[in-house]
Amino acid sequence: MDTSSSAIFTKNFAALLFDMDGTLLNSMAVVERVWGSWALRNGIDPVALMKIVHGVRAVDTIRALGLPVDPEQEARILAEAEIADVEGIVEIPGAVSFLKTLPPERWAIVTSAPLELAARRLEAAGIPMPRHMVTGEDVSVGKPDPQGYLLAAQRLGVRAEDCLVFEDAPAGVLAGKSAGAEVAVITGAHAAAAEMPHIMLSHYSDVEARLVEDGWLSLHRRRG
């Protein structure tokens, strides 16, 4: 185990699991435009809605609102609008460089977005498609349920308890913790989970992953 002074965690990890929106890329501008318009059409306060949409599947958000609409159909409409609108989507600083240092078999993305939307946003932000990705279509229950992170760990051939999850929203943090993983909170896009008692990073520019024994990874502060 690497316990050097630059280590952020005192343990090493078999794999790193990343949420997408708000964690690897900033899509806030799109979310506010698309969901804001949808909220106004349905008589909902857009500001209040923005507080609950992060990290959760669209269909689950809509269902929880109890509106007299078909949640599946509305989720498809929203996804189509978001696929068409990628203006302002950018990587969280340092995300691309950080991911490129990771062995492809040692990381995955776990997102609440459908696959087509996830691929569109990753491309817009210049983030490479991972070898392994779990989307909202791959699970029967979305975050905060741990199913997505458990499935990602299974696909990587590791235990979820040996993974480090990067998240930005309370639902995702709870999903990671419920899976048994360690969690780091990214705050560069918004501060939705900033009050939660976890390691917090604003971006990836000053962190690095190092390969240690057996191909495991340790996370460190980058020395200036």
In short:
The protein has 224 residues and is α/β, with parallel strands linked by helices. It is built from 8 helices and 10 strands. Strand 9 (207-211) and strand 10 (217-221) form a beta hairpin.
Keywords:
224 residues, alpha/beta, 34% helix, 17% strand, globular
Characterization of the model:
The protein is α/β, with parallel strands linked by helices and 224 residues long. It is built from 8 helices and 10 strands. The strands form 3 sheets. It has a 6-stranded parallel β-sheet with strand order 5-4-1-6-7-8, covered by helices on one side. Strands 2-3 form a two-stranded antiparallel ribbon. Strands 9-10 form a two-stranded antiparallel ribbon. α8 links the parallel β6 and β7. The longest helix has 14 residues. The two termini are 23 Å apart. The mean pLDDT is 92.
Shape: globular
Order of helices and strands: EEHHHHEHEHEHEHEEEE
Radius of gyration: 17 Å
Q: How many beta strands in the DSSP annotation?
A: 10
Task: Map the helices and strands.
Blueprint: E1 15-18, E2 25-26, H1 28-41, H2 46-50, H3 58-65, H4 71-84, E3 90-91, H5 95-100, E4 107-110, H6 115-125, E5 133-134, H7 147-156, E6 163-167, H8 170-178, E7 182-186, E8 199-201, E9 207-211, E10 217-221
Parallel strand pairs: 1-4, 1-6, 4-5, 6-7, 7-8
Antiparallel strand pairs: 2-3, 9-10
Helix pairs in contact: 3-4, 4-6
